[in-house]
Amino acid sequence: MEEVVIVGAGIAGLATAVALKKVGVQALVLERSEELRTTGAALGLFANAWVALDALGVSDKLAALYTPMEKGYITDVKTKSIQEVHYPSSRNGAQPRAVHRKVLLEVLAEELPPNSIRFSSKITSIETQVEHGLSTCIVTLDDGTIIKSKVVIGCDGVHSIVARWLGLRPPVYSGRSAVRGLSVFPKGHGFDHGHAIQQFVDVGKRAGFIALNDKEVYWFFAATCPPKGVEKGADPEMIQREVTENLAKDFPPVYLDVIKHSDLSSLTWAPLMFRYPWDILFGNLFRSSVTVAGDAMHPMTPDLGQGGCSALEDAVALGRHLGNSIAEHGKLVTGDIGFAIERYAKERRLRVATLITASYLSGWVQQDGSNRFMRFLRDVFYGFLLGRVVKGIAKYDCGKLHGVSPLP
């Protein structure tokens, strides 16, 4: 019998395990891959994410490695007009930074006790049974292993088995896809790393890059049409060639040069999926002592860079609510778990539905920004109204973890 089983060792899964450790609960993380997943190369973590990382006790380790991101520039490829965007810090001074996804996962994993993560563990089914009025979760793995647990938390991504078991409707295709990569300049790239993100918009296209350190640059390219002939898992050289020679051929030379320096092993292409916000507001985010977090709950387009940030918020919220269900002997009180999970879902519904909606609108306004009407929307709607919403989103405080002595 496990106290908590977490399905998936991505950002949400590892962060949730760390949060539970902080409040004195041991969790077993099941990961279907043979090692930590690092798809995506890098991600932006805004002020709200750093508040969560501080609650998890790892913010100092990461902040020491990356320079704060102070502002960004959005360049219209057709008109050459440039819009400057400033990224606010939180009330406690947390500033946005771009970080390596692999480094973030490793830092979180280092916080966990040995053998907390079980790799090559793919779940095939979930059941709940009630004995003596108390609910128990039964997780079956593809190798026949059966694990019983008081709580199951699905952090298993966009195509979550746990979300499907809860009855959440599948995510939908946004009509866009994205290529992401990490470029390496052995002699240095010469960019003002960390201080600004460069973005470029054209009709149906949006791209950008930001330096992570003196030699590495993270870049992305999103479009309403995927690279020609490219499917998921396609040859990285084909993806790179299709972007530079076709889709982004009219983009500034500095951007194309970044793509040409790509570490091909880091290149990925994927459709951009999201869950309808009303499915979050009215759907089943929990059942008994089973719930979801991260992309398993709220897949969203990456236009506000809030996917990883909101996953970290989920982790802290889960740790806080489950921490209130711990008895003096350091075990979860089964009768209280359902109420804790329900309070967690209630706290997160409106927040993540808002993030999904704002991300989608932001991408729509920015990416279709080179005709006259859409330029007006971007300059007025995005620059003033949505811009204020974005700043408010980044100032969100997910709270602290307290009340119980953490596990060693």
From TrEMBL:
Name of a matching Pfam family: FAD_binding_3
Single GO MF descriptor: monooxygenase activity
Record keywords: Monooxygenase, Oxidoreductase
Keyword Zinc-finger: no
Organism domain of life: Eukaryota
Signal sequence, renumbered to the chain: none
Name recorded for this polypeptide: FAD-binding domain-containing protein
Database matches in InterPro entries: FAD-bd, FAD/NAD-bd_sf, MOase
Family as reported in the entry's similarity comment: Belongs to the 3-hydroxybenzoate 6-hydroxylase family.
PANTHER family: FAD/NAD(P)-BINDING OXIDOREDUCTASE FAMILY PROTEIN, OS04G0423100 PROTEIN
